[in-house]
Specification:
Distance between the termini: 35 Å
Structural class: mainly alpha
Number of helices: 4
Amino acid sequence: MHWLKDVVMNEDKSKTISGMAAENMSILRNIGINLFRVNGYYSIKYATEICVNNLKELVRLTSYKPMCWNIT
């Protein structure tokens, strides 16, 4: 995942260095990558390009409800 975060999300070029900001941004990047993967995007770069200005797609990604968690 390091290569993906470095190359696609430019994590090493990030200027957030104070306090826990760098760790928090890394966690947010991990969440984003996992949301893309769980919703069937194979290419994180492609998914980022689709979602960058598409509010409907972002809402759909964050409101994902897995079918296998049928708890009654």
